[in-house]
């Protein structure tokens, strides 16, 4: 199975982000938008592992969320990987209780390391991927339009009250996501 751990988004937040996606698509018509039903904030992509690892991953999430209360984040700015001028992924960064996401991510990484699962060591930037692209170069004029798109946006805060274990199933050029487990924050 192809596993990942993530924060799911409520329907209202997905609708707000879909509005940004549509405006983005008008500026950059060749983008491939993330399906609004699959929008999430990834804590850790684990990748292909044996199905038997599922109980261990659920236990890992429970341990990583121990004494972590619910918290709020809010989409706040637009950026890209590796950068906004030559992106392969365009994403929304978040503000708010980002320290709780960082703590959760570090705990998950520590527990994955104990299970001898390779961990992405790059600096973690909490984000919601909203579009993919190939060979796109964004000039300063277009970048200014992208930033203007975000200036007047007032997103509702997202209350994070659980962490989910997902499986990602290849489906032609896309992936379906199934929730395998949900661990509540208390």
TrEMBL record:
It comes from the Bacteria. Its EC number is 3.1.4.58. Keywords: Hydrolase, Ligase. The active site is at residues 40, 127. It catalyses: a 3'-end 2',3'-cyclophospho-ribonucleotide-RNA + H2O = a 3'-end 2'-phospho-ribonucleotide-RNA + H(+). A motif (HXTX 1) lies at residues 40-43. The keyword Ligase applies. GO terms for molecular function: 2',3'-cyclic-nucleotide 3'-phosphodiesterase activity; ligase activity; RNA 2',3'-cyclic 3'-phosphodiesterase activity. Belongs to the 2H phosphoesterase superfamily. ThpR family. Hydrolyzes RNA 2',3'-cyclic phosphodiester to an RNA 2'-phosphomonoester. This is RNA 2',3'-cyclic phosphodiesterase. It comes from Candidatus Daviesbacteria bacterium RIFCSPLOWO2_01_FULL_40_24.
């Amino acid at each position: 199975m192809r596993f990942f751990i993530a924060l799911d988004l409520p329907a209202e937040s997905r609708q707000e982000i879909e509005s940004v996606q549509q405006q983005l698509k008008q500026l950059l018509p060749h983008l491939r938008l993330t399906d609004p039903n699959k929008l999430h904030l990834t804590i850790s992509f684990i990748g292909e592992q044996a199905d038997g690892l599922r109980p261990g991953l659920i236990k890992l999430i429970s341990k990583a969320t121990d004494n972590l209360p619910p918290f709020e984040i809010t989409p706040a700015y637009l950026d890209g990987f590796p950068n906004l001028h030559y992106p392969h992924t365009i994403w929304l960064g978040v503000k708010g209780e980002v320290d709780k996401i960082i703590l959760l991510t570090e705990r998950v990484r520590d527990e994955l390391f104990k299970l001898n699962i390779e961990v992405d060591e790059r600096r973690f930037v909490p984000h919601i991927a909203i579009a993919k692209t190939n060979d796109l170069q964004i000039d300063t004029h277009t970048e200014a339009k992208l930033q203007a798109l975000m200036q007047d946006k007032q997103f509702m805060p997202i209350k994070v009250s659980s962490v989910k274990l997902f499986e990602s199933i290849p489906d032609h050029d896309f992936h379906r996501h199934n929730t395998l487990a949900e661990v509540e924050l208390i």
